[in-house]
Amino acid sequence: MSPTAFITGASQGIGKATALLFAKNGYDLIITARSKDQLESVAKESKSLGSEVIAVAADTSDRSAIEALINLGIQRFSQINVLVNNAGICMSAPMSQTTIEDWEKIINVNLWGYIYTINALLPHFIEHKQGNIINVGSFGGKVPLPKMTAYCTSKFAITGLTETLRLELEPQGIHVSGIHPSVTSTDFLERAIFKDSDPEAEANRRQSMEKMLTSPLASKSEDVAKAIWNVVKHPQAEVVVGSAKVPAFLNRLFPSITQGMMSNIS
Ligand SMILES: NC(=O)c1ccc[n+]([C@@H]2O[C@H](COP(=O)([O-])OP(=O)(O)OC[C@H]3O[C@@H](n4cnc5c(N)ncnc54)[C@H](OP(=O)(O)O)[C@@H]3O)[C@@H](O)[C@H]2O)c1
Questions:
Q1: Which of 119, 194, 219, 248 allows an S-S link to 142, with CB 3.0 to 4.6 Å?
Q2: pLDDT (tens digit, 9 = 90+) per residue, 138-182?
Q3: Range of 120's domain?
Q4: Left (φ > 0), alpha (ψ -120 to 50) or beta: where does 217 sit?
Q5: Could you give the dihedral angle defined by the CA atoms of residues 48, 70, 32 and 80, in that order, rounded to the nearest 10 degrees?
């Protein structure tokens, strides 16, 4: 029987690269995202690599849809071995421009979406005394980034969720890892919410983030997928992927220096 991975946000970017890498390595897949056509095309590509695939369009902030999909996956494959929580959206705005509705949107997807999958899969992992939970966080969950308060709040929460859960579940044979990408060249900004005090400032903010995502320093989706694969094979507490390794490390040792630098570039 092939092992099975459940991957959220698998229609494109990091989630898609992860799905294809797991398919290449003999995994069956349960994949989800909201865009049905894109998801089906990833399913088709994964099947051509030999995987059996369940692909269901769902919003990860819809708890009952996620629970139903996990139950369907367990029924069909008998066992799920790996959970990759990856579906996420970005928001860049000063706090004064961030509405409660924006907060709810970011927290519902970036935090509750991860909690729903873990909550639904945990009894299965505990029963089988095995499982890997990989939470895709962000360097924005390791280093505070000004004018990204809602996004960083959600990602710092993922860091806390991952580190705490790891300690709790390790004795039960369940490995929990955090993968924290630096800027990665994907279409992440297509879904991002940008806000600022005026349209020009908002356009500038979008432009400067677009520049970062297309810079040679940006990681590729495949780099992040490889890191996810590696922690499944050789469990580790966390990996920062790409160029933010150094600031993430410095922030742990010398927070005032890193944070001083961050407020100067905001
Ligand atoms: N790219 C970066 O620079 C970067 C840096 C640090 C961390 N990350 C993190 O890496 C993860 C993946 O990002 P990415 O760069 O691959 O972004 P992406 O290309 O925009 O992909 C995001 C994926 O999540 C899905 N998604 C978004 N909202 C969803 C929802 N409500 N329900 C279900 N699926 C949803 C999207 O599909 P649908 O729209 O079809 O639902 C898509 O498949 C995110 O958690 C992000 O925070 C990215």
A1: 248
A2: 999 999 999 999 999 999 999 999 999 999 999 999 999 999 999
A3: 4-265
A4: alpha
A5: -40
CA 7 to ligand 1 center in whole angstroms: 11
Convert the pLDDT of each residue in 28-39 to its tens digit. Answer: 999 999 999 999
Query: Does the CB atom of residue 242 touch ligand 1 within 6 A?
Result: no
Residue to substitute in 6, 14, 224 for testing ligand 1 pocket (most ligand atoms within 8 angstroms of CB):
14
With a 6 Å cutoff on the Cβ, whether 60 touches ligand 1 is yes
User: Does residue 141 have its Cβ closer than 6 Å to ligand 1?
Assistant: no
Average pLDDT, stretch 92-107?
97
Which atom from ligand 1 is nearest to the alpha carbon of 10? Answer: 43
Residue 254: burial class (beta carbons within 10 Å; 0-12, 13-18, 19+): exposed
Backbone angles phi, psi at 214, to 5 degrees: -105, 5
Residues 143/251, Cβ–Cβ less than 8 Å: yes
Q: How far apart are CA 174 and CA 162, in angstroms?
A: 12
Active site residues: 151
User: pTM of the full predicted structure?
Assistant: 0.96
Class of residue 138 by CB neighbours under 10 A (exposed 0-12, middle 13-18, buried 19+) = buried
- Total of domains in the chain: 1
Tell which atom from ligand 1 comes closest to the C-alpha of 38. 40
CA 263 to CA 68: how far, in whole Å?
A: 44
230: CATH: 3.40.50.720
Q: CB of 183 closer than 6 A to ligand 1?
A: yes
